Amino acid sequence: GAVVSQHPSWVICKSGTSVKIECRSLDFQATTMFWYRQFPKQSLMLMATSNEGSKATYEQGVEKDKFLINHASLTLSTLTVTSAHPEDSSFYICSAGSGTGSSYEQYFGPGTRLTVT
Amino acid sequence: DQQVKQNSPSLSVQEGRISILNCDYTNSMFDYFLWYKKYPAEGPTFLISISSIKDKNEDGRFTVFLNKSAKHLSLHIVPSQPGDSAVYFCAASEWSGGSQGNLIFGKGTKLSVKP
Fold it and tell me: B3: number of CA atoms within 13 Å, CB side?
């Protein structure tokens, strides 16, 4: 299947700093990428949908000025957590969509563990 | 309101037996369903999917059944192996506006397969 990578796989940062997470589709072009957040023992929560060349669509309750998403190319989307707080500590996962109709599939990255101290 | 529900947070099965994971949904517009497997601190791994025009899809040890009238789907794993121990997520989406919509996930079911 298609491969999606994320970098870094884990990061520790201090409160008030910003952290950028990269999501790349390695062997296919993804017009749409998704960013999820997972809290301990909870399901994946969709944060935003990112379309190449346009502004991201954020889910209700997600601060777009805090979680900056850029989808600069068909293979790269970035999530920047600005002015990070300890409550932003979480597991962030990106995914990329490929195909159409019944052949549609969504491939997930390995995730990034963010810890804000 | 949860559109995709996995009412069993955990399931324990003996190795070699069948594991049945259940999922219910409320949105009748969903037309595509997927199961993902997730290990701690890793991204979800796609397992198997089913389109709403089918009621069964099989891939090796994994079979997904869809009952549209009951808005229910299930994942069967036969025979279960210790390596299947993970959290399983059910997800659904609908075709809208010329593209497949966002995946809506259930809360997951933690499967433990005991040797």
Answer: 14
